[in-house]
Specification:
alpha+beta; Cation-dependent Mannose-6-phosphate Receptor, Chain A; 12 strands; about 25% helix; signal
Length: about 280
């Protein structure tokens, strides 16, 4: 079915809503979903959805990602909390992320820095505070940013992970960038950063065609309701049950007369209607 601009926009909004509902029902990791509409295209990102080579999507199969730069260590998991079956964080001040015996198990991002020979941990991300945004709306194919944050007693911290769309390989994270007192960023290349695109072609009836369809539907509803009322309540049977039958029957003749008058108006009086007078000499 071919539809107009406004109808296409509503269609894309409905598709976006249905995709969001479906993904949130089918996946506990619905917080890592994002979609937006641009130029008659729906861009949908579902980072936790399974891919042929990655059954857990962008989530690390180890239960966590780890980056080491100098004496700073960063642990995080995307779209879920961290799980450690090996190499767990060993640092002090981990009370808001599982405590010393389960450090890292109650948050989604943790950073550790060396302070006087001890690794001091700071929680910088919670699962409940995860949100997704596109890196560049002018270039939606580039990927998305997953941002996690944590409001602590001393600092408000965050971790931003840029997931670059790459359909061929997975690379990173290999670096840590410190953006502020307690704000960090890193980069990951992954196929899950590529959007699923639904396109509606730019052709159709437009607003005029949509208006005509609405008028025809309203006219049909009027005739149906009037006929039913006259048949069942007024006892009018046969073709006379159609409301305003005389008007509809005369409509072709009225239209023809109107068209003829318009033609005469634009063409002027025809030769058959001109009056000829013979010259009279006095």
């Amino acid at each position: 079915m071919i539809i107009g601009n406004e109808s296409r926009r509503w269609l894309l909004l409905v598709i976006s809503l249905l995709l969001t509902i479906q993904l949130r029902v089918n996946s506990v990791n619905g917080l890592c979903e994002y979609s937006f509409i641009d130029r008659n295209k729906l861009y949908n990102f579902s980072l936790a959805s399974p891919l042929p080579r990655f059954p857990h999507g962008v989530l690390s199969e180890d239960g966590f990602y780890k980056v080491m730069v100098n004496e700073t260590a960063l642990w995080f998991q995307l779209c879920d909390g961290m799980i450690f079956n090996h190499d767990p964080p060993r640092c002090v001040k981990c009370s808001d992320c599982g405590g010393p015996s389960h450090c890292g198990m109650k948050c989604s991002a943790l950073v550790a820095e060396n302070a006087g020979g001890y690794q001091v941990c700071t929680t910088i991300g919670q699962v409940s505070s995860t949100n997704v945004s596109v890196i560049d709306k002018q270039n939606p194919y580039k990927g998305v940013i997953v941002r996690m944050s944590n409001s602590g007693k001393e600092h408000n911290c965050s971790l931003s992970v840029s997931i670059i769309c790459d359909s061929t390989i997975v690379q990173g994270p290999n670096s840590i960038k410190r953006l502020g007192t307690c704000d960090y960023a890193t980069v990951l290349q992954h196929p899950s950063g590529c959007a699923t695109i639904i396109s509606v072609h730019d052709s159709g009836f437009g607003w005029f065609g949509t208006l005509m369809i609405i008028i025809v539907c309203l006219f049909g509803a009027y005739l149906l309701a009037g006929t039913v009322y006259r048949y069942f309540f007024l006892g009018v049977h046969g073709i006379e049950a159609i409301p305003n039958l005389d008007f509809w029957a005369s409509l072709p003749h009225r239209t023809q007369s109107l068209f003829s008058s318009l033609v005469r108006k634009f063409r002027g009086p025809s030769a058959s209607h001109r009056s000829f007078y013979s010259q009279v000499n006095f």
